[in-house]
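Journal club side-thread
Mid-discussion, someone asked how the predicted structure for our own chain would compare to the paper's figures. Pasting it here so we can look after the session.
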Amino acid sequence: MTEYRVEKDSLGQVEVPAHAYWGAQTQRAIQNFPITGLKPYPAFVWAMAVLKRSAAEVNADLGLFADKEVSGKSVSGDAMAQAIMMAADEVIDGRLADQFVVDPIQAGAGTSHNMNVNEVIANRANEILGYGLNVNAKPVHPNDHVNMAQSTNDTIPTAIRLGCLWRLDDLLATLDKLAHTFRQKGAEFDDIVKSGRTHLQDAVPVRLGQEFNAYACAIERDREKIAHAADGLRRLGIGGTATGTGLNAHPEYHARMITTLSRLTGLPLSESDNLFESMQSMGDPVHFSGALRTLAQDLARIANDFRLLSSGPSTGLDEIRLPPVQPGSSIMPGKVNPVLAEMLNMAMFQVMGNDLTVMMAGQAGQLELNVMMPIIAYNLFQSMDIMINAVNAFVDKCLVGVQANREKATGWLAKNAILVTALNPVIGYQKGAEVAKEAMATNRTVREVVVEKGYLSADETDRLLNVHNLTEGGIQK
């Protein structure tokens, strides 16, 4: 049987599991929002905890923690502030992770998540001060002390920004690793000349290394977009409190919070130049989500290429071979599928869907607040987690082990009648089209048809159709 204690909020009394650090408002949220069964991402918990820790330090330095009488015993304001900071540090270190239990789809703006953090830190701070969970009179109050000079309305948008920045270096390092591995494969495959394809039809030659280097370049550029978009997240609106006016916060609170948060997180952060805008607008998180979406569509495209280039092997292109990591069929013995590329596709589809949710939630704010922030937070943090994990799996279990099938790649090229394009400057487009049509109809090479028709000598044709030279561009003469 579960044992309970009674906690109280402005609506009355609530039964809370006896050993839970959360309180009445969190318990109401658990009961009111049994939606997904999911819990907040660690990034969201960490970001809120570092805010609470910073606020306790700043407010203590400003002399705003008053001494308090509890059951005839005096507790100093400094002691309460120190206990809050110690409890917040424990949350930051992940030691109370199981206490953050509010569904991502919850009351608007994130009040439930904010109060979950406030209550856990308050109860743990009281415990540090010697007041057990089941003691009725406790010195540290979740609203009066942990939430001092704050509102859900300025803490949640600030936490969204901090949570994204918390994982940013991991994401950028993962993309660096991906691009570097593509560059390595580009160098490894650079001497393999193969048929290019446009519209999924034969096109002029390319080198396999050129294809892989293009993948690297796309990832490098997407990385730049993400890093640039993240710069907007560094402007923090903490201190705006309820509507941007800063009501109930010390005039120095905003600036001091930025300094303290920068020190505690090691992140380069800056003051908002307009606290009203920072609370009204989710433009910066939406922009960051859009940069993630751009990367997602490039990764999905590359995954599609991997599936095509490795297709077959007997009846497909079979120009690259992916490492076999698991059997591909429950009925067809020996079948191996491009499972890591398939996984990457699905992961990126999820990120694209998350971006749509973020965009729709971003435009759904009204007047001084966007109440859809909880779902913005969840989708952004999930997208970053998915990208980091999916890309690492793709690199480690697939990309590093990709092998080129030189024989098949060059074999397809030999049959490619579109090679005649290189002869256009010499024999003209009309004759070239005639040669291509006959080569395809008779299953012969372009060289054979051109020489037979007397358009060029064998030596001239061989010189102009040097496939490696064709991949370097220019006019063939």
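Post-session note: The first strand starts at residue 4 and ends at 9.
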